Amino acid sequence: MRLKALKYVFAVLVLTFPSAFALAQGGNASGKTMPHADALWQLAPAAGRLLHGVYPGGTTGYEDDITPKSLRAYTRAVGRRVAWVMFSNNWFSNRNFPLKTARWIRQHKSTPYVRLMLRSDTEQDHREPVFTLDAIVRGDFDADLAKWGQQAARFATPVISEFGTEMNGSWFPWNARWNGRRQGAKLFRGAYRHIIDVTRAAGAGNVIWVFHVNNADYPMKNWNRFEKYYPGDDYIDWLGVSIYSMQAPYDTEKTGFVKSLPKVMTRFNRMAPDKPVIVAEFGTDVHNSREPAAIWADGALRLMLGRRWPNLIGFSWWNETWENDDDPTRNTDMRVQSSAPLARVFREHLATSRVQNHP
User: Fold this and answer.
1) How far apart are the first and last CA of the chain?
2) Rounded to an integer, what distance in angstroms lies between the CA atom of residue 122 and that of residue 262?
3) Which one, of 95, 179, 96, lies nearest residue 135 by Cα?
4) Which of 128, 226, 230, 308 has the lowest tally of Cβ within 10 angstroms?
5) Which residues neighbour 197 within 8 Å (Cβ) at sequence distance 6 or greater?
6) What is the rounded CA–CA span in Å between residue 275 and residue 303?
7) How many domains does the chain have?
């Protein structure tokens, strides 16, 4: 049976037997590799529910140093546990599957969401010197990818992962700006397919792969439309999108979530109508008075929980603070715990029966 057909069968089972998802936290005591369809089944929410996740924030800005303390700070603020916890796996520091972090996330009854970042540093707007798309396709990192896949398989319970975060944004090195406007998107498709092929061959059927775009194409050129980067239905399990408004207290350019998400959903549903969708990242600075965070988040949560799109299955807030310069008053802060009005909005919306902590 084709993978697409298997997904359909398990989707029907999910809607019929939602209680079966309690299996997700039990793991695979035998240590055997998990069939991909089982991982999809275990991570699907019950009918009419949305999964609630978070990037809980780190201390260095590398996005790979999250802690149980940062997760607890967020969950205390919003009053609910989370279905997944997002973080980065930066290959400039470690090419192994991040087992230690994944384990403590699982201990908190959540699923690890690993941003597989094949990059040499966290600086933006430059060409990647080592982990190029060409090198990935050529197989230069196959041994590392196979080892990563073997380690992920031994984790034995579902993992969410993505490569090429926000690839339609020119700030990341996997964007076609840095890989050729004519062939860049094709190279990206090939690299992502190669990563999935190698890790699946190593046994990592428990990994759910996400195609994670920015809500708008930057630059807004035909060669950079996110559809051109899509690896295809046989490779991608979920579609994801980032929607941010103010990314600093001094920013002046607003991004309306309630206008942006419908546009993305229309494009997603044309590109891959059978795929589940998540708002993988959303957030806005809590100290920017031009776009009050509580009002912005209220509109976002109200829209998502309104169930306008049956294939929208979850969302996660980017709960981070970082320095922009030497003036602490200009620091970015998107943490829910930093704003009582924002925390109230989250508590009110997450208290509804439409939000699910974990499948």
Assistant:
1) 25
2) 31
3) 179
4) 308
5) none
6) 19
7) 1
User: Token pair of 89, please?
Assistant: 């796996």
Give the predicted TM-score (pTM) of the model: 0.91
Closest by Cα among 163, 188, 166, 165 to 176: 188
- Tell me the three state secondary structure of residue 138: helix
Nearest CA-CA partner of 356 in 112, 167, 8, 83: 83
What's the rounded Cα separation, in Å, for the pair 281 and 118?
19
The length of the chain is 359
Q: What is the CATH number of the domain that holds 28?
A: 3.20.20.80
Both tokens of residue 65?
């140093």
pLDDT at position 66 is 98
Helix (H/G/I), strand (E/B), else coil: 77: helix
Type of residue at 304: M
277, 240 Cβ separation under 8 angstroms: yes
Name residues whose C-beta falls within 8 Å of residue 34's C-beta, 6 or more positions apart in sequence. 28, 153, 156, 157, 158, 205, 206
| 220 CB burial (10 A radius; 0-12, 13-18, 19+) | exposed
CB 128 within 8 A of CB 119: yes
For the chain, give the longest Cα–Cα distance: 59
Domain that holds residue 162: 3-356
Instruction: Give the span between the Cα atoms of 185 and 178, in whole angstroms.
Output: 10
Reading the block at residue 314, the tokens are: 């979850």
The token duo for 31 is: 């240590």
Q: Where are the alpha helices (DSSP H) in 17-67?
A: 36-43
pLDDT for 296: 98
Report the C-alpha gap between 200 and 180 in whole angstroms.
Answer: 28
Angle (nearest 5°) at CA 117 between 265 and 322 = 85
Q: What is the mean pLDDT of each run of 10 residues along the chain (359 residues)?
A: 36 34 36 87 94 95 96 98 98 98 98 98 97 98 98 98 98 98 97 98 98 98 98 98 97 96 98 98 97 98 96 98 94 97 98 85
12: tokens are 């029907």
3-state secondary structure of 357: coil
CA distance 321 to 247: 10
